[in-house]
């Protein structure tokens, strides 16, 4: 950490961040590979300058993963009630005012003052459209009565798409229970097993090998996709078209990212012991394998190989954003700078769907910041308390 960590980082926030108590054995090789490839070492990737090889922080403290629930619900106010397993089907709107919500089970909850949607960049636009807020013609085509024409609802979907690259190499497998090539699932809590794809459970590295994988993310994507309704059933998933790599800039950036990652994983510290290169294609666990110590054998026909790899393996990082974006006009946006939905009273949206573009960072911190800002906006409007340090004016 830099000496100016008080400037770059809060030391009094509600969520603890650490670098972890232990690192994998091959982390040191990655830094050696970066040095051999001419990449700088970055002692603090969150200082405002992310360039270089560094370690990222994690929300783990005292051997426990921390979430927003730990940060905000440990000392929850007495007037807060959380209803679990109550997915919202639609917002109840009367005379252009949000008066409550109806759940999928048919139960209704009425709002005393306002309704705030925080369903995320996929579910929030779906809920708005099911409630009659969206592109009028699209709603009418599904038999939904429009309450406000907002053509940008469900548009502008952005995400940090990525393509993976990996290598496998021989290793000394002496010592430690994890050196016996056990099933990775032995290290997961039992409740997660029922939701894990069989392809993940079935993949175990070959005996005597280690695997180093990297993902090349497009952090400033220019491609935008859509979230649209194809059913009035709130239980039916919306039609999601991310349109990854539809913009030429993104294709260029991802190919260059794959090339740079190949260069990193071809550094002498790895090339001397690499036995296979690994290009996953999808979650079915299919892969293209190439035997040999030189990762560049994959790129013998560089353009064709890279294009095929990217087409077959590009996927979402689940950082979806921007589908109910904030702005100054309902013709180009969905909510105003105070998170209020255009054309409707007492309805706000506070989640990653309101950001005009996906930020060049992990979206977790941005989502928390949005919640802090919206809380300050509401507190100020209703004279509940003084704005906090995260107020919009400070940002």
UniProtKB/TrEMBL annotation:
Domain Glucose-methanol-choline oxidoreductase N-terminal: start-end pairs: 28-161
Return any one Pfam family short name.
GMC_oxred_C
Q: Which InterPro entries match?
A: FAD/NAD-bd_sf, GMC_OxRdtase, GMC_OxRdtase_N, GMC_OxRtase_C
Q: Where is the Glucose-methanol-choline oxidoreductase C-terminal domain?
A: 221-371
Signal peptide start-end: none
GO terms assigned for molecular function: flavin adenine dinucleotide binding; oxidoreductase activity, acting on CH-OH group of donors
Q: Which family does the similarity line name?
A: Belongs to the GMC oxidoreductase family.
Q: What is this protein called?
A: Glucose-methanol-choline oxidoreductase N-terminal domain-containing protein
Annotated organism of origin: Meristemomyces frigidus
